[in-house]
Amino acid sequence: xxxxxxxxxxxxxxxxxxxxxxxxxxxxxxxxxxxxxxxxxxxxxxxxxxxxxxxxxxxxxxxxxxxxxxxxxxxxxxxxxxxxxxxxxxxxxxxxxxxxxxxxxxxxxxxxxxxxxxxxxxxxxxxxxxxxxxxxxxxxxxxxxxxxxxxxxxxxxxxxxxxxxxxxxxxxxxxxxxxxxxxxxxxxxxxxxxxxx
Length: 197
Fold this sequence. Notes:
Elements: H1 4-8, H2 10-18, E1 23-24, E2 28-31, E3 36-48, E4 51-57, H3 62-72, E5 82-87, H4 102-106, E6 108-109, E7 118-120, E8 129-131, E9 137-140, E10 146-154, E11 168-180, E12 185-196
Antiparallel strand pairs: 1-2, 2-3, 3-4, 3-12, 5-6, 5-7, 5-10, 8-12, 9-12, 10-11
């Protein structure tokens, strides 16, 4: 949860972002002048055919941190629905990843029966955290299946959408890749928490 100190100085943080007066760390952004670290942390879990649970930490890229400050602190436009996408690239998402570059950098995996990326249906935020445990994003492999290395939450619901302006919220590489064959069901749960320190 963002502290009152962060909320009260939203414009100052946005100005620091524009002027690049911050440092990118493994867990978020450090603003040395303000003495503040803003991070987004969480956990991405997945199940193959309802079993074989796997979990991995999320990253919240800089694009998402900027969006959260703009929408949550500066009364900017909010995105109403986020969507979960899978990727088949053998890569680890980094803080520079964006909604626009996700498809090419991570190689979006689209060999599933559902016609769109799956909506992230999160519970009401409490204690600075939300998750979609009651309505996991579910993907049914079709065709020849394939290997999935991770997942991300994105603004656009369209498969392989790399349109300029589409945002990313978070991404995670699975701790182990998932080899899917036709009819396998991969369920993805995201837990997202915001902290300030």
